[in-house]
Design a protein that fits this description.
about 180 residues, mainly alpha, two-stranded antiparallel sheet, 6 helices, globular, membrane, transmembrane helix, transmembrane
């Protein structure tokens, strides 16, 4: 029993606590960057400069919501609005579906994975050493993408909704690891 509990606690650390720390840290620094940019320029300039980051952020939410079979009611990949919301994905899900409720945790942090994948793809496929003008554009796009890491309060709220079910999944995985 002690081995099982140790495995369970270790899995909680690796699959829940570590991802939370990483996602929160990345989101925090992205938020600081966005705030700094807004203070030193304006909301409109920050919104324009964050275009690629916001689009990838919202596409990440959208794609993962579709994977978890959520009904998309409305979305905007990018906008400049008076309320400061640059993009959104409104969705509905069946609260009695374990799969759809579990999806909340993955939908919420999807932008961390999506933006990271976009940055890595740019560096791997577009960046060419010695092509300074081209690489300057890549750096500007990466700068925009960095602004897309910022997870909103709604993202974190939806993340928290999925934690109890995610703990059940971790418990199941820990049980399988213990048995086999």
């Amino acid at each position: 029993m002690t081995e099982f509990l140790l495995q369970f606690v270790q899995n909680i650390g690796y699959f829940l606590i570590l991802p939370i720390i990483i996602a929160w840290s990345i989101s925090f620094f992205s938020s600081l960057l966005s705030q700094w940019l807004t203070i030193h320029t304006s909301y409109t300039i920050t919104a324009i400069l964050s275009f690629f980051g916001v689009v990838i952020h919202e596409l990440s939410h959208l794609i993962v919501a579709i994977i978890f079979r959520h009904h998309i009611t409305e979305f905007r990949l990018w906008q400049i609005s008076d309320d400061g919301v640059l993009g959104y994905v409104n969705r509905e899900y069946n609260p009695s579906s374990f799969y759809q409720k579990l999806g909340n945790i993955f939908i919420s942090i999807a932008p961390i994975v999506g933006v990271t994948a976009a940055i890595c793809s740019l560096i791997k496929f577009i960046w060419v050493p010695g092509l300074y003008i081209r690489n300057t554009f890549v750096i500007l796009i990466i700068g925009s993408l960095l602004l897309g890491f910022n997870l909103s309060a709604a993202d974190w709220q939806n993340f928290r909704r999925g934690i109890p079910l995610y703990l059940i999944v971790i418990l199941f995985i820990s049980t399988l690891q213990y048995l086999f």
